[in-house]
Amino acid sequence: MMSQATKRKHVVREAFGDFVTPTENQQIVKVTGSRGNNLHEAVTAQGVTFLVSMPPKFRKNLWIKRGHYVIVDPIEEGEKVKAEISFILYKDHIQYLQKQQLWPVGFTKEPDKTSKEPKKREETEEKDEAFSGSEDDESDLFVNTNRCNYQYSESEEEDSDKEERTENGS
Predict the structure, then answer these.
(1) Vertex 44, ends 37 and 49: CA angle to 5°?
(2) In this structure, what DSSP letter does residue 61 have?
(3) Region 83-90: what's the mean pLDDT?
(4) Under DSSP, is residue 115 helix (H, G, I), strand (E, B) or coil?
(5) Average pLDDT for the chain
(6) Distances from the Cα of 133 to the Cαs of 15, 98, 121, in angstroms?
(7) Are 59 and 38 in contact, with CB atoms under 8 Å apart?
(8) Which one of 1, 103, 125, 165 is most buried, by most CB atoms within 10 A?
(9) What pLDDT, on the 0 to 100 scale, is given for residue 40?
(10) In whole angstroms, what is the distance from residue 114 CA to residue 13 CA?
């Protein structure tokens, strides 16, 4: 029996490492929202909306949000839940599918819009970096909003130590 950590390692490695192309019965859909209980609402490139289920191997290992793309296997006997997620597509996977010309035509408009926005962001980031002079860009790191954000400054402590030393030493 595989431990939870080992299982998670294999699932994550598979999700980020493999470049998968959809088979004849699989299709690429865009997640439009979560319905709870490991169900997600998805829309096809043709605009058909239905529910997809998250298989147990992905649960608590990988997360998807509104706007992510996934490859789904159809469920023939499903009335409300029409498909099951077989693969979660990340930016590298989407670019690979676009190069292979396997990306659905209905979704091609949206990546163009998003590709223009990062260019604007890059320009503003370059300007910000020029002003800040900081080489370490931590803006893309996750920030936990449930914790207090403490700012520790070593320079203030050092300055106060120097002042105490000069007052005592003089």
Answers:
(1) 50
(2) T
(3) 91
(4) helix
(5) 75
(6) 36, 37, 17
(7) yes
(8) 103
(9) 95
(10) 27
